[in-house]
Amino acid sequence: MFGAQLPQILDDHERWLAAAPGGRRANLAMHVLRGIDLSRRNLTRALMAGADLSTATLVGCRLEGADLHGADLSGADLTQACLVAADLRGSNLRGARLDRTDLRGADLRSSDMLMPVPMKAAGEAPSGRDIVFRQARLGRALLVGARLSGVVMRECDVTGAALRGADLKGADLGGSVLRDVDFTGADLSQADLTATRLSGASLVGTRLNDACFAGADLVGVDLEHCDFSGALLDEARFSQPLDSLALDMRHRVHEHERWIDSGGTRGARAELEAANLEGADLRGVRLSGAALRGARLRGVLLAGADLTLADLSGADLTDASLRGAVLRGAALGHARLMGADLADARLDPADILRPDGHPSGRSWPADLSGADLTRASLWRAQLQYANFTGADLRDADLGQADATGVRFAQARLEGAIGLDRLTAPASAQAG
Which keywords annotate this record (predicted)? Predict the structure, then answer.
């Protein structure tokens, strides 16, 4: 009986999403949907708590914000499915296929993704390197206390995820982006983190016995509170703090801070056009008003830095960490920000001051025209009145961003998430 009603339930749900007459939100909670094919259906915000979706085919299915609390997704095919901000607490994902699955912002606390190693064809030995999670996107995912022992999660983007207290013993995370991930108290013993990018990650209290960090990027990791004894660190890359930069570069940064503090009467403005600061740890540095046109800043750590009214036009900030940075009124036209982390950053207008230091009543918006922000995270960023004309925002995360008055004319927005919740007028988004 229920099987015959399902097509109508799905159609009514899509009408509900479109606010069309006759629409009704799909309620599939506790239903047995084992082996069902829901490929490419739109189940955004559907109620599916406790549903049995084991071995279901959910290829390309839209499940943004869906309630899948306690659902059984064991053996399900979630290839290219979108589960952005979905509630997956306590869900069973054992053996699920998560190939290019988008789980950004999903709540996976206490979910079970312990995956047994698949058996090979007759005569072949089983291998722990079979790809299960492949190029999945787990940015900002809540995986606190998740049971992930032995999981295979290669080439995934896990930027900013919370993995506090998670069991990752023997996990294969090779080649994954783990920037700004909170691993506090997690178990990474015997885990393979070869060629991972861990810049800015927290490993405080993490168990790292026999973990492999060969070729890993550990820039910005607080080493004083990590015990790497017994871990393999061959060719791992560590921070290049400000104090380790060339003397001339350090002098210019310090003189710039004097220039700021004195209102321009002492020191000198930092002129760092085309400077090479790649991989440097510049967290919390004050470079407001600095000239950084065309600078090489790939992978740089600028979390919490003050770059108000700085000129970063044409700069290469690929994979840079700008989490919580102040970029009010900054010039970022045609900058390269692919994969950059701008979560909680301020890109709203800067107040223009009079010569006496008092507000003039005028402001200067941030300029990101023509910038490449593919795969960048702008989660919860303040973007008010910023200029994104002609920018490339494909697959960017704009969840909870304040985009009041933002100009998106001619911008590429394919695959960007959070657009439906932006506070910008629809006309601005249409471009």
Answer: Repeat
